Amino acid sequence: MKATLTDLITKAFERAVKKGELPDISLPPWKIELPKNPRHGDYATNIAMVSASLAKRAPRQIAEEIIANIEDPDGVLDSFEIAGPGFMNFRFKPARWHRIVKDILADGANYGRTDVGAGKKVQVEFVSANPTGPLHVGHGRGALLGDVLASLLEAAGFDTDREYYINDAGNQMATLGASVYARYLELCGREVEFGEKLYQGDYVKELAAGFLEREGERYLDMSEDEAVELLGLAAGKTILDGIRTDLEEFGVTFDRWFSELSLYESGRVTKTLEALEKSGAAYRKDGALWLSTSKYGDEKDRVLVRADGRETYFASDIAYHHDKYERGYQEIVDVWGADHHGYVPRMKAALEATGHDRDSLDILMVQLVSLLRGGEPVSMSTRAGEFVTLEEVVKEVGRDAARFLFLTRSSDTMLDFDLEVAKQRTTDNPVFYVQYANARIFSVLREAKGAGVDTEGADDISLSALTQDAEIDMIKLLYLFPEVVEGAALLREPHRLAYYLQDLAANFHQYYNKHRFLVEDEGLAKARLALVRAISTVIVNGLTLMGVSAPESM
RNA sequence: GCCUCCGUAGCUCAGUGGAUAGAGCACAGGAUUCCUAAUCCUGGUGCCGCAGGUUCGAGUCCUGCCGGGGGCACCA
User: What is the ipTM of this complex?
Assistant: First the structure.
């Protein structure tokens, strides 16, 4: 309908120009928007105001000329007028809105999908936590952000892949190996000093105990270096399996798990470094290899290869991102914890140094999560008995509640995640509020079926009985859904979807309390049932995008 | 010191440069002979942190300041 309006307005403007009533200017960007105030019609445009200075005419005067030239051959408009400082307000006839309901029912599970993405290849890389310990709630937030964003991008017509980057090379794996080895020696009765730099968590002890149980004391027979390496690899694998399981429990899966180690093994890191040095982007100084990131906006140059010959994490990260482009991705989204934001300028710089457009990479920073229980902070230190891992949180509050709550804040504000609130089945907890709306609809449909009313199909139902403001307003909100999906995808703001669904559910609950659906007037009943089915379609599609279930009864 | 995020109702937070800034919670009262009361209705609240600037128009964009979180390694 926006498209219809755009067409009507543009043509009216052109006619006015042709007749000499308006100067022939190229229109600056103008908008059609939904006014907050219903008195301002269904849609409003600012075209007269934005073109005022170029046309050297008063906004209201321009608006008048456009209005005078509007033709509405299909008769879809109910009214239109000039208002305020130069807005033009438009109102569609109810019949035009009624058609939307049929469209939604016809589209079904596809309603909300658009093709703005035009099949463009996009990759969303998220979580990518080091396999040195279990996931915590902060990872959960990043996981949700990435997962739902990927779903939104798919719905918006992008060819989307989800990827997890495994940091299985370098220091941290060595530290993990050393940590497990130390605990292992302890369990074998050896005296060891457990260094501060080693991973302190109890899970390390459990890992060590596991190796002892399954493989006995064989690690005592080898050199420390060998044992540390083998244990590091094995422990990393075990932890990664756990991470994978936890994410699956949380409803998050990936198209690809990409190993950092594989970049080294295939020589892609070396190749990238050589290319950088050859192109002059990297240089040697003090025995190390540096990348001139400061040429591309970073505050100083960064080391790629240390003086002792070991590559930095940055080096493999460059190779990794270069590899993403070689795999054909046109747009890349990285979801990082906010504590890594200092890394952004050098990554962007590295992109340019390797010949890629810095704007083709979007780095989303996800702010911290504080875990609360009944308003009291839960210690995030790895202490026995505290609920700190993602697995435990999901187990306690349930997948749906956890997923929804992670999206109730924009990703760049801190999130308080209260375990008690997450479990409450009240309005405090938006997930049940939204699910309940859908359950109510199914209850109505069951009732209708029981009374022998047809609740299928749409083509032959007349919707002209939907004359209440509440009904037209509902339809307008439903019509907004594809735009919400598209906006959330393009702006990389999945929380918009969560807010929209709450708004939709609220409108439905109000409608439900104000009007009955199963009324004697069969035409009205059928029309309302069709509307209610369309509402359910949108709720289900929205929740599905969020990876949240939509039960038919609660 | 530099970078970055945040600052909007008592609290938690929404708010693609548009018209009279919203929701939930909290507090008080009310609604079910009838489709699920996990719901709804009625009550009122704002120097949109402060000061400049851009604009026909600023909570939204720019600059500076104040306050809070996070980050500033040849760590990841």
Answer: 0.95
